[in-house]
Amino acid sequence: MKLDELYPTGSTSYGIETTAQFMSIPDLIEKMGDQYLMGYVPSDGMGVYAVDITNGGDVVSMTRKPGNFGWGYCQWGYNSGAAPGTIYYNNDGTLERSWGIDYDCTFINAAEMCRLNTRTGMSVWLSVASVHNNLIDGNKMTQFANYVYQQVGGVFDGWLDFTIDQYHDIIKNDTPIFDRDLNVSNEGVTAHLTIRPSDFDNAGMKFALIDTGLGFSLYCRILGFRLNESKYYYDSANIPTFNIMPFFQIPHNDGNMILMPGSLDLAQINITYNNGGITAGRGTTGGYYNNKYIQNGNNATVFGAFDFGELSVNDIDFTRVFSSSLGWWAFVGNYVLTSTSVGSGTAVFRVNAMYTPRDVYNYVRFFHKRTDTPSDSYSAADTVTVFDPTETPTFDTVSGTLSEIAARLRPWQLPNVDIKSNTFTPEDIPDPTPEPGGDEESGDTIDFVMRSFSGASNFITNYAMTRRHVGIFGNRLWTSWADSLGNPTEMIKNIRIFYTGGDTGSIDIGSVMPFIVSMKIFPFDLSNFIGYETNGIKIGTGHYPIEVPGCWYLPRSSVYVSCGTVTIPRIFNDFRDYENMNIMCYVPYCGTVELNPGDVIGRTLSCTYGVDLQSGGCTAYIIVDNNYPVATISGQMGSSVPLTATNSGQLMSQRLSDISGASALIGNTTMQVQRESEQPHPKQANMDSAIVGAVLQAADSVPQRFRRSAISCPTMSAGNGLDAFAQPPTPYIQMRYGIYDLPANYKHSIGRISTKSNRLSEYKDTGFITCSNVDTSPLNCHNDEKAAIKAALESGVYI
Amino acid sequence: MTIKFYTYSGDNRKIDKSSGMVLGMSKECSIYQQTGIMHPSLVMTYSDSIVNYNYFYIPKWHRYYFITGMEVMPGGRIIITGSEDVLFSNKDAILELDVYVNRTEGNNFNKLIVDNNFPTQANRHCKTLSFSSKPFSATDTDACYLLTVVGGQPDEVE
Predict the structure, then answer these.
(1) Would the pTM of this model clear 0.90, i.e. be above it?
(2) From the candidates A695, A707, A769, which should be mutated to test the interface with B, based on the most B CB atoms within 10 A?
(3) How far does the CA of residue B100 sit from the closest CA of chain A (Å)?
(4) How many C-beta neighbours within 10 Å does residue A152 have?
């Protein structure tokens, strides 16, 4: 539904009479459904935006009206100098303030508001822009009380936001942050209202429900804190106010978003950004740094302090300044980091975060700049918990997660986030508490540690060599001389034993070839497992090693190779992550293996190979959270390098057979392994056969084997043998999942599945509900009425 | 008897309709004919404003009704027929009922239970994720050879 449809063009308010400025939030939700409403009134007077996030993720309605927010928002300002009692609207660019309202920047997520303020009846969201301690104007409060009392008839819920000076002392001493009489003068009603920090709970938003004693209550929130009350909250010429909004983002200069985590105890940072660069930053202008107040060059509002750690201007990257007066946003969990802009050509960025107790997880939403549009559009990315209550998050912590975030970007999400036009289409906010991962687990922890086997012995020895080493080694095996006729002769060198003691002379034992067990080629760097560098290959007792300078002695017969990790994201954060979801892991040299979503969703997988260096065989283990394997698959990683014409011929024959026969190529790993092992030991070969080719040449004939693996990957064409040679050497995960065309207002019109049995009153103000097993016997009405009630509850009501 | 007329602008399925109810006028009326409590027919003096209302309350019966029809009769009278709004009439008692909740708009739902109402398209999305390390060589030039020989451990280069 477009805002224009709700509120016809040309109206001075959005279909709401100025005498009835307030619409109840539940009714607002009913009209707007799951759309997210944004209202923004910066210094140059912009308006209300409504963004439909549900129509395939595209922005279908982004209506921008001059600053007219007649849908239930009113702001209260301090030291504004404005005449009280005027309803605020701005249809033609003029501004009229109400109750001393200053300019305001307000974003409302209707669903969030509904969730937080679910009272039926009139709901008004007030923001007390700059109430600090007891400096709120009692007259203004009286006027407000009058209005509410008269308009609403005594039943009213609204928000009252506070910023608190001298936070530490106030919290410590539970000093009242509001202590005034509320005079409803027309009615002759007076009540004294005292609000203390202890009235606020610790449930995230830090709010309290305060009974005014005048027949209505107020939701009060602590927006922020200030250390030094001698500083003004804001420069009245620029803007200022800080209201905690749910959705904000901070753009990074390369498109990634950086969100500032931090302690969130006190949070404000002012950064002035001029075209082309940051001219001021944290610690240099504005805000507090290490609890010291720093005046912003633009005299922008500062309060609070933010403990990012040792940050420099270079640590914080921001994109260019927008000519629009609309600023940047960021949020952490349910708390927002606001920004605004002042003047043209300069963006003043303020980061203002809500206090949060340390026992609450916070998370960060990241947004990635789209590259498929020329405009400044950002796609919603993922949500990452960055605030661990056991440690203080740092900027590096957040930065380190960016690569992970980038890997989890979901391109189909909300593509049109046009910063210039101030559209912002956040998706559903996941719950701030960590979700359990996949299937439930219990019981003992498995000791799963990858180990390598050291098979070094005096019987066989492994050497790791490069191509160059292999070439040198091959050449060392040959000796050449000219015979008596001057004919050049070459032959494999023999092992010669020299007599000692009283005997002299030597005898040749024979060719060194029988002493070479095998040569294999592996697709990874064996130097990670080497024992040490050596000068040559010891044959037999090895007194005179065959010189191959720089090759490495490898004291292992098996090694394990890690392919790193990948985190499987929750795409939907609900049952769809497990149903209609197929997850396949491609494992080079082994094939593909299907993974159970319940085992891997939301978890970090690692892929580690155990490699038998002697046979060339390998087994890949897909391990969850470094805890236990959820899949294994075996294959062949090492390929034999033929050292004689005999086994070279066998190898070529096998290759030709593989290429010509697709089934043989794709074939199974077992068959290939057998073929490898069937190559006879050089000693068994007919050594009298002409030895042709150098070892290096033989090595050149086999590299394609690395790319061959018995893959049953569904993306591979089984009939194309060449695929096996070109398959990627990096393991990857493929997630195939359904695409759901969820209707707008799904929860509102259909509801989500519940499995609770409760009293209906516990669901009050939650919206749509369907019930079963309704026992209407306690009702004091007729049977036909009971039947109608039962039918209504079963078909669905709004509670 | 006196009945109160309202204009109601909300969803009929709401239990508590207070927020959408705007009180109009009160008027004297009579029972038009034999009628059930749930579907009364009332007759009263016609007035132009009466047609603007869609809801009424009978204080004596403590019940609320949707106006389902109006028939204007000669002689300046009008017949109002209504259908009881059983939800609003019994809202307090209904809220005290213990029920098994099948579906809810609120947050108290189980997102891990399969919801067959989710419309699923025929096509699927394929998402590829790479592991963080690339230990394997894509070319043979980066590969490593392993030579196994008969013999003992070599000497280390000093």
Answers:
(1) no
(2) A769
(3) 4
(4) 18
